[in-house]
Automatic annotation (TrEMBL):
Chief localisation class: membrane
Membrane topology: Multi-pass membrane protein
The organism of origin for this protein: Bos mutus grunniens
GO molecular function: chloride channel activity; protein dimerization activity
UniProt-annotated location(s): Cell membrane; Membrane
Name the record gives this protein: Anoctamin
Region called Disordered, residue ranges: 15-39
Domain Anoctamin transmembrane: 308-762
Anoctamin dimerisation domain ranges (all copies): 82-305
GO terms for biological process, alphabetical: calcium activated phosphatidylcholine scrambling; calcium activated phosphatidylserine scrambling
Coiled coil stretches, renumbered: none
Any one cellular-component term (Gene Ontology): plasma membrane
Transmembrane portions of the chain: 319-346, 397-417, 480-507, 527-548, 575-593, 691-714
Length: 849
């Protein structure tokens, strides 16, 4: 094919272009998403915007170069989801500022942006989409471009995307469960079926145009539901090119939004959340979700997961299904935790060693060595009387029982969630999703190297060679390792602060002590140091989080994963590894290292040759660990609510006050949605991250704070409704996405579960074994050097292998439920029948990928 000049618009329809560009990923060149379907007109891409003359198309300044959307006046129907003709449904909305009405001196830049946008919209029209533009009623600079996908385009891309669509209604009867006898109780928590009707089940298969008659098409307007239509249109918008410059292709709505050419791009909500639509054809799903899911009066009801999945997609649905299941399981852990806490509280007066510490004749007669070298005095053991009493609440026999219980609980939760997830995969038809998922457009655009597929022995394009991939992985791993070292450095800084400020508190608190102030009973040097260090640690955690989030996204973009699932899993592992070290490092230091290397009386150990190593309270570091957990968990919950609830609400109120002046105006649905907040590129990623961090606190250090499951339960009950409220009232509608499971979060939780056995069961058993195995039944050793080694030996002897519980319980629990297995076996004959029909038709097999 002859080389084009730099000012020539690119033809993308011709077959010789397919041969030159080759395949992108595993999609044939004739059907790859960056190309227009062969039956549609050719599409265009700008090259060298500085040129004013384009060969074969005249001047770029002329509107004849591009196919532009028609401008229409608003028809006065604020609830309408259709073009002005009332027939074509709005599947997506693009928003931009008209450059001709901007008050700016950058005319050249505005002209470039205008021509890029015109080229992009022209390519959308050439690709078969239909556009209609309307000016804003509030701000005449804003233009809303409404996008509609006609039937032919939907069918073409449904086949490219391997979207599963209904073959026939599922008329197979489900077997009754033994738990059906308790329906009288569960109905109290269920959503009223007269309000939210159950979804009809269908047998499905990947759509193919040449087998269209086999699909359950009763009405072309409803065969593709709104969520599927939005998915298809977004798939097209993400892959349409608008510029080719120096042989580099620029494409996709995301780049255009990031560069400011478009202000926003989003699908529409179907109605107002507070009132149903006046349009009788509107399903009012947003209104139903707000009324039966997000409203505070529905806080006791089960979530309408099927409607959530239908309206927002499987990815949102699986998140709320997991969060709801996790919250239900927390109920049992919270009950046991409260019982163990109450046991410790009511048996506090029976704690022998606390009585001895507080007794003036015992603890008052024991003189302790100074805790620092210069200014610290000798002190009596009964000074720690109040802290020892509080410690008895958390360090009781009930705590040991609770630690063992949580080891079993976390295993049961993970295994039962796998069963529930398998049910959702079948019900939501995502069993074969990984084979159906398309490559990301960013990946496709970088596929320039040709390799031989080891399985198919065919040529395919990849973005880089094996050596290039190794270099990228090495650089990414080095960057992550560097940031982890940075966190460890911050933890060391906090330790230095603890060592230095402890001396100051010890001296100052002793000077101002008058023996009558009751606060001085509780504000000890250890407590003051612990609280201030925890607050500083929390501030550092928040600052590092903000910085690393951007760094992790940059690293993952450089890594260039193939599919969206691969991208999210890679980002998830990087973010969690960082967050794990960031949030838990200080807790691990207090739980396992503080006070373990202080030396002996007369022979203390110094850190950095200057600071004397920290010592725990005579009763141990458990109370300090509890303080650390309360500050981090409480501060994190408050900060997240400010970020997730208060800020979006304030910004939405401010936006409405700024744009609406004078009398109230009737604004269309697309303009109302534009003034809502965007959800963000990563969707609910940060919601997952927040809950997994909480899951770690609940399981890893729960022996130090038995009330953690109760606090997590209350937080999650509110979190579900707050997240629902945000999605339905404060945020634009997200593009519906498919998801088979919770992704990389599942193995992360399994790793936390194994580690939790070590931090809880092992720690509790070993500390009590040391007491029982000591010569006189107490913690007084015969020789100082033997104490630490004896502790380690007992720990190794009594600590069960971390994976024992998982290994024992996994075979007994894991496996799809019997009812689900029966339904899958009932479903197979229809699949086989459809395959046989497909083979008879032109010898072309059905694609179950």
């Amino acid at each position: 094919m002859p080389m084009m000049t730099r000012d020539v618009l690119l033809e993308m329809e011709l077959e010789e272009d397919d041969e030159e560009d080759g395949d992108i990923g595993n999609v044939p060149a004739s059907k790859r998403p960056l190309m227009a379907p062969p039956t549609l007109p050719s599409s265009l891409a700008l090259e060298n915007l500085e040129q004013t003359n384009v060969s074969g198309f005249g001047s770029l300044k002329s509107q004849q170069d591009f196919r532009t959307p028609e401008f229409e006046e608003f028809n006065g129907k604020p609830d309408s989801l259709y073009f002005n003709d009332g027939q074509r449904r709005i599947d997506f909305v693009l928003v931009y500022e008209d450059e001709s009405r901007k008050e700016t001196n950058k005319k050249g830049s505005n002209e470039k942006q205008r021509r890029k946008r015109q080229a992009y919209e022209s390519n959308l029209i050439c690709d078969g989409l239909q556009l209609e533009a309307t000016r804003s009623l509030v701000d005449d600079k804003l233009v809303f471009v409404k996008v509609h996908a006609p039937w032919e385009v939907l069918c073409t891309y449904a086949e490219i995307m391997h979207i599963k669509l209904p073959l026939k209604p599922n008329d197979l009867k489900t077997r009754s469960s033994a738990f059906d006898n308790f329906n009288w109780f569960t109905k109290l928590l269920q959503v009223d079926e007269s309000i939210i009707k159950p979804e009809q089940e269908f047998f499905t298969a990947p759509f193919e145009k040449n087998r269209m008659n086999d699909f359950y098409i009763q009405d072309r307007d409803t065969f593709f539901n709104p969520a599927t239509r939005s998915r298809i249109v977004y798939f097209i918008l993400s892959r349409i090119m608008y510029q080719v410059r120096d042989n580099v292709k620029k494409f996709g709505i995301n780049k255009l939004v990031n560069s400011g050419i478009y202000k926003a791009a989003f699908p529409l909500h179907d109605c107002n959340f507070s009132t149903p639509s006046e349009d009788l054809s509107c399903p009012n799903e947003r209104y139903l979700l707000y009324r039966e899911w997000a409203h505070p009066r529905s806080i006791y009801k089960k979530q309408p997961l099927d409607l959530i999945r239908k309206y927002y997609g499987e990815k949102i649905g699986i998140y709320f299904a997991w969060l709801g299941y996790y919250t239900q399981m927390l109920l049992l852990a919270a009950i046991v935790g409260v019982a163990c806490f109450l046991y410790g509280y009511f048996t506090e007066d029976n704690c022998t060693w606390s009585k001895e510490v507080c007794d003036p004749n015992i603890g008052g007669q024991i003189i302790m060595c100074p805790q620092c070298d210069d200014e610290c005095p000798f002190w009596s053991l009964n000074v720690t009387c109040e802290s020892s009493k509080k410690l008895c609440i958390f360090d009781s026999f009930g705590t040991l029982v609770f630690a063992v219980f949580m080891g079993v609980w976390v295993t049961l939760f993970l295994e039962f969630w796998k069963r529930r997830q398998a049910e959702l995969e079948y019900e939501w038809d995502t069993v074969e999703l990984q084979q159906e998922e398309q490559a990301r457009p960013e990946y496709e655009a970088r596929c320039t190297h040709v390799v031989i597929n080891e399985i198919t022995q065919e040529e395919e394009r990849v973005p880089f060679t094996t050596w290039g991939k190794c270099i990228r992985v090495t650089l990414c791993a080095s960057a992550v390792f560097f940031w982890i070292l940075l966190i460890i450095a911050s933890v060391i800084g906090i330790i230095v602060y603890r060592l230095s400020v402890f001396v100051i508190f010890s001296v100052n608190l002793r000077k101002i002590s008058n023996g009558t102030d009751p606060i001085q009973k509780y504000v000890t040097p250890q407590m003051a140091t612990s609280i201030t260090a925890s607050l500083i640690s929390f501030i550092i955690i928040m600052i590092l989080n903000t910085i690393y989030e951007k760094v992790a996204i940059m690293i993952t973009n450089f890594e260039l994963p193939r599919t969206q699932t691969d991208y999210e899993n890679s980002l998830t592992m990087k973010m969690f590894l960082f967050q794990f070290v960031n949030y838990y490092s200080s807790c691990f230091y207090i739980a396992f290292f503080k006070g373990k290397f202080v030396g002996y009386p007369g022979d203390p150990v110094y850190w950095l040759g200057k600071y004397r190593n920290e010592e725990c309270d005579p009763g141990g570091c458990l109370l300090e660990l509890t303080t650390q957990l309360i500050i981090i968990m409480g501060g994190k919950a408050i900060w997240n609510n400010i970020q997730e609830v208060l800020l979006p609400w304030v910004m939405n109120v401010f936006g409405r006050c700024r744009t609406v002046s004078g009398a109230e105006k009737i604004t269309p649905r697309w303009e109302q949605d534009y003034h809502l907040q965007p959800m963000g590129k990563l969707g609910l990623f940060y919601e997952y991250l927040e809950m997994i961090i909480q899951f770690g606190f609940v399981t890893l250090f729960v022996a130090s704070f038995p009330l953690a499951p109760l606090l997590a339960l209350v937080n999650n009950i509110l979190e579900i409704r707050v997240d629902a409220w945000k999605l339905t009232t404060q945020y634009r509608r997200m593009v519906p996405e498919k998801a088979q499971d919770i992704g990389a979060w599942q193995p992360i939780m399994q790793g936390i579960a194994i580690l939790a056995v070590v931090t809880n069961v092992g720690r509790e058993l070993s500390s009590r074994a040391v007491r029982s195995a000591s010569p006189s039944g107490n913690l007084l050793p015969q020789k100082y050097p033997d104490t630490q080694g004896h502790d380690h030996c007992i720990h190794i002897r009594h600590d069960p292998p971390p994976g024992v519980l998982l290994v024992l319980l996994h075979p007994a629990i894991w496996g799809p439920p019997r009812l689900l297995n029966g339904r899958i076996h009932q479903h197979k004959p229809l699949h086989l029948q459809y395959c046989r029909l497909q083979k008879r038709s032109q010898g072309k097999p059905i694609r179950w990928v």
